Amino acid sequence: MTAEPDGPEDRLRRFATIWSRAVFPVTSTSLTRPEFEEQLLPLARRLSEALLARAFDPEAGKEVGAALVAGHCTDPEALSRSLDCVDAYLVLYCGEDGPQEDLRARSSRLQHAMAAGYAQALRERTLSEQESIAQAALTAQGAVAQALHESEARFRAVFEGAAIGIGIADLEGNILEVNGALMRMFGGSEQAVRERNVQEWTHPEDAPQVWRLYEELVSGEREHYHVEKAFYRPDGTALWTNLTVSLLRDADGNPRYQLALMEDTTERRLLNLRLRYEATHDALTGLPNRTLFFERLEKALSAGEGQRFGLCYLDLDGFKTINDSLGHAAGDRLLVEVADRLQSCATAPGEMVARLGGDEFVALTTGPDTQQEVDDLADRIMNALVTPVRIDGRELLVRGSIGIVEGPAGERGPAEVLRSADITMYRAKSAGGNRYEVADAESDARAITRHGLTTALPAALDRGEFFIEYQPLVHLGDSTVRGAEALVRWLHPQHGVLGPDRFIPLAEHTGLIVPLGRWVLEESVRQAREWQERHKDKLGSGPLRVNVNLSPCQLTHPGLVQDTVEILERSGLEPGALCLEVTESALIGADDEVLKPLRRLAEMGVDIALDDFGTGYSNLANLRRLPVSVLKLDRSFTQGMQQFPADPVDLKIVEGIVTLAHSLNLAVTVEGVETGAQAEQLRILGCDTAQGWYYARPGPPDRLHELAMADATG
Asked: Which of 491, 542, 590, 645 is the most buried (most CB within 10 A)?
């Protein structure tokens, strides 16, 4: 057993050794194999550097391919063996410490570039040989006998020794001579080749202009042409060539012969097809990948008038749970099974299925009438997912959410269509999943606006685009202003003033609610302190308080207590002048760990209000374990009091809640008071404070100051 190379240079040299052993037997060179290995070592180093470079540059592969031709590795087998070595060993010996998937992708692109560089260099070499051959042939026709003999000798040497296939025919297409390289290409004898006429060498994949160019050449209208052409070998297999045909004239300038030069490109073509397949198909499922799908979608969207398209964008529901619980291997097997089922759903002409990545798939249908076809396709996909997938003895239920986009070709681009499908798919997922939704412009616009607001949130906080309005809290007993609730607003540059319902859910989803909430708390506490300074010695009912809302994310943030303490100490505001409002739904079923920060704040003297009380269906007995001092009754309980007479059921409910709250030493605040009759009824029922448009709408902090001063002087 031998030890593995232990350094980058050792591994690089080992790669060069393997490469030289593979290629040397098919290389026409006077070097020994060790000398040939030394010639390949800098090429191996160039590939290694390109593989590991921070910015990937495929030009390195082209340079290495050209260098192989310069080193006389012109046999097609030399290129094939070189690419096989790079594919098998480059990442193994030169990239073992890097991300293997990315390195494999780079290696594949380097192979493609090597093939391109090799082809370009070989083509240039071929053209050079063609020039020499043509020159020798022309010189041979017009020289005197001795010169003709010498020229013929030179021509014969080039003719027989050339690595490319050469054939000479008369203008009727009768083949007069062929060299050994051409016979090897066709795999037959010289006689078998010469018995055929040039015009018999047709192939179904001939370009339309091939035989038109031929006719122009033999008639003397053109001197040469160059095309890619396929031929049939005697065994029926295809021979692909780069074909150059030149016209040879006699001493008087009359057309006399045609000279054909053929470069065998069959292996390179197969390699390109393989690389193209790998570049356009998903390695796991074998389905077309994002690249090929976008090509097909772009073609469908640019179809002629009267053509339409339909697209189904599928995302599996709960796939992450399967990956997390059963492992990625099981997840991959599930994806392969789903891909097979989807493939069976799209078999009609104009239909295709692709995998975009992860557990996201797309199905496309095209034609003049896709309105019904795309719905049928979505139904087939949903039905195909109904049967459980059996993996490792488990039956896994597979469900999916589908977004459908359908419309005429020519109106939208691929990116816009896919974005609409993605938005619609998430709408189906938000509605519970295991269903499909059809795209519509209004939903797309809302989603795009929502996304724009989400991305603009961080910068908006930095630019100071948020501000706070305050809605007074009024004591129902004496109608005096006791404080205010802080309500944050966003002054958006394009959309104007946005209420919290437009951006608070987005801030919670992105985590920005924590810094935004800290800013709101700091600004509100500072404002409360300013009110106290301005109202000092003028208000007999105590200092004005400020109520600040806490989101569930803030409630579980480890810095909540410390941030609150620091803000209060920095402003000089007493804890009793601050009330933190937490929604009832955030505290339903909360364990002691969640309640601990609220208890610490309550012990400091900060009031805790249970907001939207009555909407969370919580057990009233749980109020005893919550560290709250205020119940904020949801407006739904008091709407029936806006009319006269008030709804007796609502009166009984509110009366019961107030009685219960007061028995637990909790104050009761009512939201949404809009009429004087409603305020009076709530006062009679024993509610402590209220807020609503009857008293004042949310406004700037100076408005609260004015209201408070009016109470103090009235």
From this structure: 590
Q: What pairing do the DSSP bridges indicate for beta strands 399-408 and 394-396?
A: unpaired
List the alpha helices (DSSP H) in 664-700.
676-685
> Please, which residues bridge with residue 230 across strands?
240
pLDDT tens digits, one per residue of 29-61: 778 888 888 888 898 888 888 888 888 788 888
pLDDT digits (tens, 9 = 90+) for 233-290: 888 888 898 899 999 988 888 999 999 898 888 888 888 888 888 888 998 999 999 9
Percentage of the chain lying above the pLDDT 90 cut: 26
Averaged pLDDT for residues 692-713: 76
Q: Which string of DSSP letters, residue by residue, matches 447-463? A: HHHHHHHHHHHHHHHHH
Residues facing 231 on adjacent strands = 239
Measured CA to CA in angstroms, residue 691 lies from 468, 550, 611 at distances of 17, 18, 13
Cβ-contact 314, 401 below 8 angstroms = yes
CATH class of segment(s) 467-485+514-703: alpha beta
Instruction: Choose the CATH number for 163-270 among 3.40.50.2300, 3.30.70.3340, 3.30.450.20, 3.90.550.10.
Output: 3.30.450.20
User: In the CATH scheme, what is the code of domain 8-132?
Assistant: 1.10.490
Q: How far apart are CA 435 and CA 425, in angstroms?
A: 9
Residue 520 neighbours by CB distance under 10 Å: 21
Kind and range of the H or E run holding 546: strand 545-550
Angle at which helix 266-280 crosses helix 290-301, to 10 degrees, equals: 90
Q: Tokens representing 437?
A: 């939704």
Q: What does the pLDDT look like over 307-356, one tens digit per residue?
A: 899 999 999 998 888 888 888 898 999 999 999 999 999 888 888 999 99
**Residue 624 has what DSSP assignment?**
G
SS3 for 72-121, per residue?
A: CCCCHHHHHHHHHHHHHHHHHHHCCCCCHHHHHHHHHHHHHHHHHHHHHH
Mean pLDDT comparison of 76-80, 221-225, 632-636, highest-scoring range:
221-225
673-700 in b/e burial notation, b at 16+ Cβ within 10 A?
bbeeebbebbbebbbbbbbbebbbebbe
CATH fold group of domain 280-439: Alpha-Beta Plaits (3.30.70)
Query: What is residue 644's predicted lDDT score, i.e. its pLDDT?
Result: 67
* Domain parsing of the chain, residue ranges: 8-132, 163-270, 280-439, 467-485+514-703
DSSP 8-class letter at 204: T
On whether the CB atoms of residues 240 and 228 are closer than 8 A, the answer is: yes
pLDDT of residue 2: 45
* pTM, rounded to two decimals: 0.53
